[in-house]
Amino acid sequence: MSEFTKTLCPYCGVGCGLEVSPPAQFNKAINRDSQGNPIWRVRGDKAHPSSQGMVCVKGATIAESLDKNRLHYPMMRDSLDQEFRRISWDEAFDLITKRIQTVRFTQGPEAICMYGSGQFQTEDYYIAQKLLKGCLGSNNFDANSRLCMSSAVAGYIQSFGSDGPPCCYEDLELTDCAFLIGTNTAECHPIVFNRLEKYHKKNRKVKMIVVDPRRTPTAEAADLHLAIRPGTDIDLLNGIAHLLMRWNYIDTGFIDDCTSNFSAYAEVIRHYPPEVVARQCGISIEDLETAARYWGQSQRVLSLWSMGVNQSSEGTAKVRTIINLHLMTGQIGKPGAGPFSLTGQPNAMGGREAGGLAHLLPGYRLVKNDQHRAEVEDFWGLKRGQISPNPGLTAWDMITGLENGAVGLLWIAATNPAVSMPDLERTKKALLRSPFTIYQDAYYPTETAAYAHLLLPAAQWGEKTGVMTNSERRVTLCPAFRQPPREAKADWEIFAEVGRRLGFVKEFAFANSGEVYAEFVQLTRNRPCDMTGISHEQLKIQGPTQWPHPQESRGAGEAGGEIKTKRLYTDLRFHTSDGRARFGAYYSRGLAEPPDPDYPLVLTTGRLYGHWHTQTRTGRVEKIRSMHPQPFIEIHPRDAAVLKITDNQVVEVRSRRGKAFFPAKITKAIVPGTVFVPMHWGALWANNAEANALTHSESCPDSLQPELKACAVQVLPISQQ
Ligand code: SF4
Predict the structure, then answer these.
(1) How far is the CA of 16 from the centre of ligand 1 (A)?
(2) Which residues does 548 contact at the CB level (< 8 Å), separation at least 6?
(3) Is CATH 3.30.390.10 correct for 85-148+349-461+487-511?
């Protein structure tokens, strides 16, 4: 029997296959981390269809983060100025159930909130939904995916009648034109980019367009880089549409047979002639025309995007405007074509399937939909009307709920909002007001642990068995290959035990996570994400598979599920009531907080190749820390000259909400008028260098995703280093 366990990388939504083996079996001179713990061996899984053996620095070094600074025991304190003291799990469960009952009967179930994470496995997500939305009657479950890709969810639902990226990674190697907007794929989704770049280099006729205010490594590889001003994405997209229409590159047959609302859209794009669009976006008319020509003349166009599009106060409109280009040119439902959102986290897709946002229910259902609620209520054995028809509090709503006393209990799991939320000073003040915060995580300390009353040690990746789904809808079993340290428990087990202690004994009578998954997939029957043909056992035997994978396809195909599942909408029928995809007609509104004389620069935030989110894991890996030792701010030489800033000089960056300090990196890689700061550094890793001290919480009205990507700032030189 092989000493290697096949699993999935727990970092980004690319979802690369990994093989892991114990330290002792692989290397007599065992490698140890800086705290002396033996390091497990990790390598890429050549058989995993998504990554084909490739792995980036994060995946390759994941094992080094497994043992350092782990939270081993439940700990509690009565107030935030006290030290934590160790307690037993029994005491912890007792405390949680008493607190939940008190809040439930004094403030009502809607005062109970849980803020979860795309780091959850699907089983964790599902049990949390059943506990909160089903048994407790509170739809206040939201996840950090709200900050990452909820605009993509809203865009897909509004355009296609259902969520779900319609493409697959194979499309990266079949396209004629890759249109990347708001995504630094080379650094943030490296293995997706490797596949695309290899193919692009081999096929010189294939075009790659990158839209980004920064000249990122992704933009470096492009045939055409459109360095637009932040907030002008819709101008650009409508401008490309205008030219496609003018040059008659549109697919009238597809528009007539498969779509609705085209005339409203055509009226909008009429107002986006190239002269206006080029001026607005800060690019040349020639480059705009080249982009439209590349798109219009290609047989197969694939667009890719991530947080640069989603994290916007008009995020849903941007997503739909990308989709519009595909609809007007018939670029969907065929190999090498389609609108493909890349998810940030390893199982953000599983969260969508399990209903892990405040407006969702399991099986791609909506809280607001009467029939959807009734279906879930029946399945869970609840009384009709037990699930509230109102979407719950989103991530930012929970912060404002703490401010106004609407939140009586906040349960945070596997995420670090004291770094990742917008408007951090306000966020931290709100967290200080929480009557009772449970923080469930694998690591201690973290920035958020400082705001908790009760700490619960969670088993993490490799210490519990569960399922994760990557950006191409590929589901992979991630088996436990080691014991959780000391008293750490799987997230789903913690939620289930709380459920049982609240009296829902039969509802949470699961012997293992395989049983949880088996129950969950029944709720996907006949839904767009039908996974009734998938089980832990099937995944173990047949390997990763894409959904939809209904029961009748069980056992079919090499990987058990390659029947019509690579791409959605190949029959050109959509999930809307009339089966047609809907055009969205949007004028650009621009940034929620545009620059002005007081705050004359636009700050955009982003990610670096090695680090992951708030460094909870990657901050413990020496190799990654030495790659990215400190935060910085990128400034164009023209702005630096005006501000009299020299390279590496420390600058103070101020917005209307806060300030932070960074050494300046003067570079032409950023457009004039815009500055860039990576978002990874919280209070634990650097002093006063938190990007989100500056950002604001203005959100997209449809997706309620905050505009973390842009705010107005001023930059002031401080000292010479
Ligand atoms: Fe992990 Fe993403 Fe890197 Fe793949 S690309 S190894 S999933 S971090």
Answers:
(1) 6
(2) 528, 529, 530, 531, 564, 565
(3) no
User: Measured in angstroms, how far is the CA atom of residue 65 from the centroid of ligand 1?
Assistant: 15
What are 438's two structure tokens? 């449970």
pLDDT of 25? 57
- Residue-wise over 240-257: b if at least 16 C-beta within 10 A, else e? bbbbbbeeebbbeebbee
Cα separation, 165 vs 471, in Å, equals 7
pTM here? 0.96
Closest ligand 1 atom, CA of 51? 4
Per-state percent for the chain, helix, strand, coil, to nearest 5:
35, 15, 45
Give residue 660 CA to ligand 1 midpoint distance, Å.
Answer: 30
Angstrom distance (rounded) from CA 438 to CA 443: 14
Per CATH, which fold does 601-719 belong to?
Answer: Barwin-like endoglucanases (2.40.40)
CA 570, 339, 571 angle in degrees (round to 5)?
Answer: 10
| Digit-coded pLDDT (tens) for 283-317 | 999 999 999 999 999 999 999 999 999 999 999 99
As a whole number of Å, the end-to-end CA separation of the chain is 57
Fold classification of 150-342 (topology level): Dimethylsulfoxide Reductase; domain 2 (3.40.228)
pLDDT tens digits along 464-490 = 999 999 999 999 999 999 999 999 999
The atom number, within ligand 1, closest to the CA of 59 reads: 6
**Does CATH place domain 5-65 in 2.20.25.90?**
yes
Q: Looking at residues 114-123, what average pLDDT do you find?
A: 97
Integer Cα distance of 446 and 412 in angstroms? 12
In the chain, where are the structural domains located? 5-65, 85-148+349-461+487-511, 150-342, 601-719
Q: Is the C-beta atom of 521 inside 6 A of ligand 1?
A: no
CA Rg, the chain, in Å? 24
Q: Kindly state if the Cβ of 132 falls inside 6 Å of ligand 1.
A: no
For a ligand 1 pocket test, name from 54, 191, 615 the mutation site with the most ligand atoms within 8 angstroms of its C-beta: 191
> What was the pLDDT predicted at 306?
98
pLDDT digits (tens, 9 = 90+) for 237-260: 999 999 999 999 999 999 999 999
pLDDT tens, residue by residue, 390-414: 999 999 999 999 999 999 999 999 9
418 Cβ inside 6 Å of ligand 1? no
Please give the average per-residue pLDDT across 682-686, as a whole number.
94
User: How many Å lie between the centroid of ligand 1 and the Cα of residue 517?
Assistant: 24
Q: Could you tell me if the CB of 56 is within 6 A of ligand 1?
A: yes
At 537, the amino acid letter reads E
